């Protein structure tokens, strides 16, 4: 009884081991590879084949997966690297590499760690490229540096089964002292540009102001000229009208003498006149006026009486004189009176 039960247990154990072995064999014989992934398979320690995406079968205990290679494009960022420029300045440069495995077998067997290889190759190439450029060229020639790095890396990593798609300089950091000097230089440049723009604005403002003053002065002068012309034309017309009126009125010497008496106060009111001299022609002018009024004042009273006709018959009708002759005579008398007044004025110290 005991022997039969012990044999059954042993049989169950053996059966379980057989099932486990069978499941393990099936698991090793079947391999499902994801998309964009390649599996390197070795058979008895040697490269056998590369499994593509999908369901694949292996020989259990003979075939062994060596490496799983991701075929997608990958990005790796390297830490900042100190690089010396041609003008002996140390700059810190961060780089970013975009790469993609194209040959899983070469990426597995040609280099032990292609990420480390790409990093070291990037550092050495970057130092060679930056060493031939000064600081200003380094800061302004990123595209040129990226192109040179990509060319060198793509050529070197081609035999590793890696294609470098793109190389970017993420940051270029010069020393702190150089950054401070650059900031001061940029600040001075901005201040200079601001001063130039301010001066240009002031210049334009002064030019516009001068142009405005010029136009204003021109318009003001044109207005004054037009006003003077209009005033002269008005005075000319007034003189012509007065002259025509005088000719139409046919004035006699008595009227001219009366006008002469009205002009004497204006001559005496002159600021340069120190004395008021009554010329001798004043008596003749008064006689002419009194004769025109119709009588003379004597010791016996009025010499004429106004009758029904309005004038004394004893007054003779005055003979009319030519206006031009009368005007010339009046001007001559006025000039004589002025000369008499100047000769009678005492000499003043000069």
Automatic annotation (TrEMBL):
Band domain boundaries: 28-186
Main localization of the protein described in the UniProt heading: membrane
Pfam families documented for this protein: Band_7 (PF01145)
Compositionally skewed regions (Basic and acidic residues) per UniProt: 336-350
Transmembrane parts of this sequence: 6-27
Keywords associated with the record: Membrane, Transmembrane, Transmembrane helix
Subcellular location field: Membrane
Topology of this chain in the membrane: Single-pass membrane protein
Chain residue ranges for the region called Disordered: 297-350
UniProt xrefs under SMART domains: PHB
Family that this chain belongs to: Belongs to the band 7/mec-2 family.
Name this polypeptide is given: SPFH domain-containing protein
């Amino acid at each position: 009884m005991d022997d039969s039960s012990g044999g059954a247990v042993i049989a169950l154990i053996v059966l379980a081991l057989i099932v486990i072995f069978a499941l393990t064999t099936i698991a090793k014989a079947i391999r499902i590879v994801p998309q964009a992934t390649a599996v390197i398979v070795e058979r008895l320690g040697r490269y056998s084949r590369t499994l593509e995406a999908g369901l694949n079968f292996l020989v259990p205990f003979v075939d062994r997966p060596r490496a799983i290679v991701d075929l997608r494009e990958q990005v790796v960022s390297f830490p900042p690297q100190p690089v010396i420029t041609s003008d002996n300045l140390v700059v810190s440069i961060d780089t970013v590499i975009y790469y993609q495995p194209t040959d899983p077998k070469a990426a597995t067997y040609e280099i032990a760690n292609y990420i480390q290889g790409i990093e070291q190759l990037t550092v050495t190439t970057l130092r060679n490229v930056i060493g031939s450029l000064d600081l200003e060229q380094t800061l302004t020639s990123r595209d040129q540096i990226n192109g040179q790095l990509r060319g060198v890396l793509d050529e070197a990593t081609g035999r590793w089964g890696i294609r470098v798609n793109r190389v970017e300089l993420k940051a270029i950091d010069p020393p702190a002292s150089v950054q401070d000097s650059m900031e001061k230089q940029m600040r001075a440049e901005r201040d200079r540009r601001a001063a130039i723009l301010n001066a240009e604005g002031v210049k334009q403002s002064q030019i516009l102001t001068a142009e405005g003053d010029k136009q204003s002065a021109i318009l003001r002068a044109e207005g004054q000229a037009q006003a003077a012309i209009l005033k002269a034309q008005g005075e000319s017309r007034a003189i012509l009208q007065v002259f025509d009126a005088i000719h139409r009125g046919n004035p006699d010497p008595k009227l001219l003498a009366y006008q002469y008496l009205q002009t004497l106060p204006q001559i005496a009111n002159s600021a340069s006149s120190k004395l008021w001299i009554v010329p001798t022609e004043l008596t003749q002018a008064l006689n002419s006026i009194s004769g025109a009024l119709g009588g003379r004042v004597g010791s016996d009273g009025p010499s004429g009486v106004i009758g029904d006709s309005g004038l004394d018959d004893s007054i003779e009708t005055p003979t009319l004189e030519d206006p031009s002759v009368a005007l010339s005579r009046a001007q001559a008398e006025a000039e004589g009176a002025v000369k008499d007044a100047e000769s009678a004025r005492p000499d003043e110290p000069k």
